[in-house]
């Protein structure tokens, strides 16, 4: 049994605890904590977690904790991950890995000192069956080289305090990772455009936005980003190759014919759309950690997405593509 401590007992934290306690037979949550300590106590009581700590640092240092799952606020991720790596413990961190490239680099430097990968970043789309099938076809060469990706990310709502830049660092960060993964390529240039704004979006942040990317091998990517006020939670992806195209399948749903209409239900929640991917992701992380080290998205992947996001946000309002400049890839991540 892998003994796990969870930092962050909000919505996704509770969902991951449920997965680890009820769906993954070789995992056990032995400790939890939250900025709001009452939330941690309530979660511990609900799931029978024996230890509640006042801080993430105390949980990381606890002798009974072998591995750490971080689902706290974005701004807290980097410090907790770095502390976990310094302690030599395996860390699963929900996206983003950090909010600055410098923090990502510090995490990688510590991993290199340890001489092994200790971090997996929660880019769960790599475990979604639809994206996995697209990746298989691209890698097979059946359709020739991938030339373009057209994608969209449409959300129903955002919480209080959401800002324009978070559309990239918190929402489109998934596209930044999954497109790199599908193409097996790094980004060269990036630009974000403010387009005609929705009259429904009056909350003080840009909505929608268009993300444009160019990879080192010349592939082009465009992402339509609606962070709120869309008709549902809708994720689309089309890869245009030399000999054909690949489209991400929509989630399974019945088609209802009634009263002279034909309809199907759309999802409104990301947790429902990617529930299978989350289940597969955490089960794989636990298995791979028990075998030696994680095999999913690494600190380098978190860093690459962070650098691209930073270039995009810096490009806003300039009408220019900006270079995506990364450090040389450490041998550990090759």
From TrEMBL:
<feature type="domain" description="Gfo/Idh/MocA-like oxidoreductase N-terminal">
    <location>
        <begin position="2"/>
        <end position="123"/>
    </location>
</feature>
<keyword id="KW-0520">NAD</keyword>
<dbReference type="InterPro" id="IPR036291">
    <property type="entry name" value="NAD(P)-bd_dom_sf"/>
</dbReference>
<feature type="domain" description="Gfo/Idh/MocA-like oxidoreductase C-terminal">
    <location>
        <begin position="135"/>
        <end position="318"/>
    </location>
</feature>
<comment type="subunit">
    <text>Homotetramer.</text>
</comment>
<dbReference type="InterPro" id="IPR023794">
    <property type="entry name" value="MI/DCI_dehydrogenase"/>
</dbReference>
<dbReference type="Pfam" id="PF02894">
    <property type="entry name" value="GFO_IDH_MocA_C"/>
</dbReference>
<dbReference type="InterPro" id="IPR050424">
    <property type="entry name" value="Gfo-Idh-MocA_inositol_DH"/>
</dbReference>
<dbReference type="Pfam" id="PF01408">
    <property type="entry name" value="GFO_IDH_MocA"/>
</dbReference>
<comment type="function">
    <text>Involved in the oxidation of myo-inositol (MI) and D-chiro-inositol (DCI) to 2-keto-myo-inositol (2KMI or 2-inosose) and 1-keto-D-chiro-inositol (1KDCI), respectively.</text>
</comment>
<dbReference type="InterPro" id="IPR004104">
    <property type="entry name" value="Gfo/Idh/MocA-like_OxRdtase_C"/>
</dbReference>
<protein>
    <recommendedName>
        <fullName>Inositol 2-dehydrogenase/D-chiro-inositol 3-dehydrogenase</fullName>
        <ecNumber>1.1.1.18</ecNumber>
        <ecNumber>1.1.1.369</ecNumber>
    </recommendedName>
</protein>
<dbReference type="InterPro" id="IPR000683">
    <property type="entry name" value="Gfo/Idh/MocA-like_OxRdtase_N"/>
</dbReference>
<comment type="pathway">
    <text>Polyol metabolism; myo-inositol degradation into acetyl-CoA; acetyl-CoA from myo-inositol: step 1/7.</text>
</comment>
<keyword id="KW-0560">Oxidoreductase</keyword>
<comment type="similarity">
    <text>Belongs to the Gfo/Idh/MocA family.</text>
</comment>
